[in-house]
Amino acid sequence: MSLYLELQQKLIQHVRDLLQRQYDVELPRIVVDQPPDIKLGEYALPLSFELAKKLRKAPKKIAEEIVAAMGTVPGFERFEVAGAGYINARLDRRLAAGLLLTPKAAGQSTGKKVLVEHTSINPNKAAHIGHLRNSVLGDTFVRLLRASGAQVDIQNYIDNTGVQVADVVVGFLHLEKKGKSEVEKLIAASAPPRPFDYYCWDLYARVSQWYEEDKEHLKLRLQTLHEIEQGGNEAAGIGRIVAVAIIRRHLETMDRLGIQYDFLPQESEILHLHFWDLAFEQMKQKGVLYFEKEGKNKGCWVMKRAGSKPAAPPVEGEAAPEGPDEDAKVIVRSNDTVTYVGKDIAYHLWKFGLLGRDFGYQRFYQYAGGHQVWISAASGEADHPHFGGVSAIYNVIDSRQSDPQNNVIEAIRGLGHTQQAEDYHHFSYEMVALTPGCAIELGYDVSEDDRNRAYIEVSGRKGFGVKADDLLDSLIAAALQEVESRHPELPEAERRGIATHIAIGALRYFMLKFTKGSVIAFDFKEALSFEGETGPYAQYAVVRATNIFRKAGLFPEDVFRSDADLRSVSQGFLNQGFLSEDEIWELWLKAGQLSSIVEQCIATTEPAYAAKYAFQLAQQFNAFYHNHHILTEPDEARKQFLLATTAVVRRSLVQCLELMGIPVPAVM
RNA sequence: GCGCCCGUAGCUCAGCUGGAUAGAGCGGUUGCCUCCGAAGCAACAGGCCGGGAGUUCGAAUCUCUCCGGGCGCGCCA
């Protein structure tokens, strides 16, 4: 816990004791707010309003009594009454340095092993902006968890035997009349500007169109799907090489944004290693699944649907209605095949180490930095790391999947794994859509109805969307233009490197600035912006801070090297009276709140708070930068203080950007 | 029909475990570069917080209800 929150807790406890002693009252919760202005103090307690009725006294009177009785609290300077009865608390600013300590830095493991599943794009087409939101949210959340000390496995689930892959296989076999060896050649020959995932993007759209033309064509889809599930045939062979080639492309695309994975579990192994059989046994034994003998689900194995209400209470005197639960969720169809939810239940039992069987593991991909990605296999390599068997999971999956997700949770709970059901988090978020204007700009046919909507859903089947690589390329091009006009003296490679960092910053920030619950109506003008509330704004604040040190021939580390260093340095500033300047003190305070922001993001599974924090801190720093010319400050002691302020803010800002996967360019 | 999400400034969004004058960015108007580079700063204009009722000392925030928009709910995956 951050010191900032610890002090808050201490304050609450002190007040609680006081209320008990003085008035013999207890409040269920003591609220601590922030006063509207730092001049009023750091914390505000509105509790006198709540007590007014209970004690039959005016709030202001109560506040006065409490303040008089507060005595001393370590870490606090004083308390005072404000407004109509607020009790404001002022921190002892000698704690300034302590506030900046960011405890639980990475490496201080909590010992808790958690699993984050994100990305999980069907391996049949290029990644688009909707997938980007998923991956950026997931990757940022991983970074937040790791910063809080958790050990995290990152998984990217691959549905390599589903209809989407089957559709592309149908395209190759029946539209393009290509066999496996020809597809292999195509893959080998594919390169930018038309990489293989782009090729499949178009083919997938064509196949979907072809199905529309004649519903008879859909029979080929079903047939191909079955062939792929069975394996050992031409369709399955094509499906395999297509999926592998596309997964590689997805890994490359995401790597451009600093997003990496540990393990890629595939549906093919869940099928071939018979994960479902084990889950099926467990579910039958515990009665979670039962065989339906009548009604519309006759001949199926079904379970009670999550969130379903119990049947209407029986009318008095009548027997409870028997009859089948028509609302039940089918898990095993009457033709003995398993539904998607069934397979997902088995997979999630594996995640928690409750299945009693493991994947085989093979090396799949190595990143430039050396990190290894493993993929599931029927028979794996001997010397592999172990995945799964974790205590908590986070599934970054859009809100449209909340029904099936809840059913999986319900099945796990039904099996008696109540703790695991509690620690199963569906990290739900809303989709990315296109504004009608954006869709028209991209050259798509937009119907009259769609033109009047606020946004239009991205659709891979229609080939309707903005590809992730294209967007990143546009961002790099736009940033490069700026860099070239600002730094014509730099070598081209360096300019390109800076532009890439800026583009990543802009894109990742854009995906994080909205809270999960709001649909992003994608708009090029906004996404390509580098001004205002954007990633580059925050990056630029760091670069400005760095420039001050560079100009002075110093490094930020010259001001303080360690937290202990910072503590003694800031002690001096306090003695000189510098920290009593509210405007600057507010910056120290804000910089010190980073670790509590991390805690808040994790508790609410909301990375947008980190984005908001980075922007606000950068904004406050920019104002400070404008108001104080540091390098020309004549008073040497004060200059040191301003430099330290810069170093302190810079440190928190860099850390926060790292949490969002936003790199900091050397110059901008 | 049932479930989930959204409705706050012209636009895009924060604020929602109730608390002091409702915030930001963009866009508009107007200032500020003899570099710690303006990808910045400052100022102004702009709000029945979708409507109504309730709870409360206090509601953008909680409850109910209505309206408007989106997404789910299949022996598809």
Would you write up a description of this structure?
- This protein has 668 residues and is α/β, with parallel strands linked by helices.
- The chain has 26 helices and 16 strands.
- The protein has a 4-stranded parallel beta sheet with strand order 5-4-12-13, sandwiched between helices. It has a 3-stranded antiparallel beta sheet with strand order 1-3-2, covered by helices on one side.
- Helix 5 links the parallel strand 4 and strand 5.
- It is globular, with a radius of gyration of 29 Å.
- The protein binds one RNA strand of 77 nucleotides through helix 2, helix 6, helix 14, helix 18 and helix 21.
Strand fraction equals 5-15%
**Strand order in the sheet with the most strands:** 5-4-12-13
- Classification by helices and strands: alpha/beta
What's the alpha carbon Rg, rounded to whole Å? 29 Å
Instruction: Estimate percent helicity.
Output: 40-55%
Q: Which whole number gives the mean pLDDT?
A: 92
Count every beta strand, where a strand is a DSSP E run of 2 or more residues: 16
Shape: globular
Low-confidence stretches: 311-320
Main sheet properties: 4 strands, parallel
Number of helices: 26
Amino-to-carboxy terminus distance: 35 Å
List keywords for this structure.
single chain; 668 residues; four-stranded parallel beta sheet; 26 helices; 16 strands; RNA-binding
Give a quick precis of the structure.
The protein has 668 residues and is α/β, with parallel strands linked by helices. The radius of gyration is 29 Å and the shape is globular.
